[in-house]
Amino acid sequence: MTLSPEEPTGGVASAAAVGEPVAATPPPRTPAPAERLLERADTLAASARPADAVPVYRELLAADAGHVDARLHLARLLVQLEEHEQALVLLGETLRNAPDQTEFLVLRGGIFTHLRRYAEADGDLRRVLRLYPSHAPAHLELGRLLWRKGLAGEAATYFRRALEFQPESARICSSLGDALNQAGDLPGALAALQRALELDPRDSKTHHLLGRVFDRLGRPDEARDMYERSRELAGG
User: Fold this and answer.
1) What value does the mean pLDDT of the chain take?
2) Using one digit for the tens of pLDDT, what is the confidence trace for 115-139?
3) DSSP characters for the chain?
């Protein structure tokens, strides 16, 4: 049966059918020049030639010196490229104007630790923890600082604290296991490293660390298996 124009169809009438204006579809959003440059730089940074991203980040910062994401991404890339002093300059410029930027403080603290400038690293990381006591990356970096200073037991305390806030982090579990092994807590190290492998079964370093723990526990067969698996995953 054909419905007459007066008969309802059972659905909601369209705006056009009842004479109401139809909203125009908004045009696609065009990214701002800064966004396009950042996207391009980030793509290059993740490529096989990450150094190609450096001039693009610097072009963006020349146009917008206060672009926080560009500064942070460039600083991280410079660390990856082992240009630590350049990264420190960039981070320092930002922190002079915004001294409580936690991501910048944690990154700079990690660089200071790598350069064995331990007092400066400690200052940055503890500043973050005064501002945000539950900041897991700051606890992790402070643990690494203490581990580098040979204070494995104290380092483990901070790794455990970091794990409270990021319990699914394989990296933190592995760091905790390494510190506990150094501190002589072999059962604790075993549990932490096994948990790390549950979270990331393909981490070659964790397999190697677990092999060392099995060696110290007098379990040579399991140690050998871990070393072999570590080599396989590392491609060697």
Assistant:
1) 90
2) 999 999 999 999 999 999 999 999 9
3) -PPPTTS--SSPPPTTTTTPPPPPPPPPPPPPHHHHHHHHHHHHHTSS-GGGHHHHHHHHHHH-TT-HHHHHHHHHHHHHTT-HHHHHHHHHHHHHH-TT-HHHHHHHHHHHHHTT-HHHHHHHHHHHHHH-TT-HHHHHHHHHHHHHTT-HHHHHHHHHHHHHH-TT-HHHHHHHHHHHHHHT-HHHHHHHHHHHHHH-TT-HHHHHHHHHHHHHTT-HHHHHHHHHHHHHHHT-
